[in-house]
């Protein structure tokens, strides 16, 4: 089985590739330097030349606050890039596993969200990720959307890495206690 991991240098992508290379599958991993998802010709070239059975899209513009001032960059990765992936994936019959976010919801529901809940994003990041999900559902015949939240690992910039770093420099931590994830 050929697996193509897009976004291999992000927190989730690094962990996915480390796990997948231990399998018998053939894994190709691409980062944004090699593959700009906004470049439809390059996306098509990479997918058609590798002919993956599965494409795992862990790439995204994830800087939530910066997305407000960088709509083009956020939309290029989170929406238009997904369109490019879906179109190319259809040409080779690949399944797309697309990593999305709980930011497609506004957080107003007093109970946990379920797959059938209607999206209602509050910010540009959520809007672009939601647009990507919708495009994927419209354009791809084989796809899985996984909405993640509160990711952590030893890589990247996460709650875990921030707390770990603070523990090395202070004896007392002050952390919010009114968030649920």
Describe the structure.
The chain is an alpha/beta fold and 181 residues long. Helices cover 41% and strands 15% of the residues. The chain has six helices and five strands, in the order βαβαβααβαβα. The protein has helices at residues 11-20, 40-50, 64-67, 71-92, 124-139, 159-169; strands at residues 2-6, 26-30, 54-57, 95-101, 143-148. It has a five-stranded parallel sheet with strand order 2-1-3-4-5, sandwiched between helices. Helix 4 packs parallel to helix 5 (124-139). The model has no long low-confidence stretch (mean pLDDT 93).
Keywords:
181 residues, alpha/beta, five-stranded parallel sheet
**DSSP summary, beta strand count:** 5
Helix/strand class: alpha/beta
**Strand percent estimate:** 5-15%
Would you identify the regions where 5 or more consecutive residues have pLDDT less than 50?
none
What would you call the shape?
A: globular
Name the helicity range: 40-55%
Mean pLDDT: 93
Short description:
The chain is of the alpha/beta class. The chain has helices at 11-20, 40-50, 64-67, 71-92, 124-139, 159-169; strands spanning 2-6, 26-30, 54-57, 95-101, 143-148. Strand 4 (95-101), helix 5 (124-139) and strand 5 (143-148) form a beta-alpha-beta unit.
Which helices and strands, and how do they pair?
Layout: E1 2-6, H1 11-20, E2 26-30, H2 40-50, E3 54-57, H3 64-67, H4 71-92, E4 95-101, H5 124-139, E5 143-148, H6 159-169
Parallel strand pairs: 1-2, 1-3, 3-4, 4-5
Helix pairs in contact: 2-4, 4-5
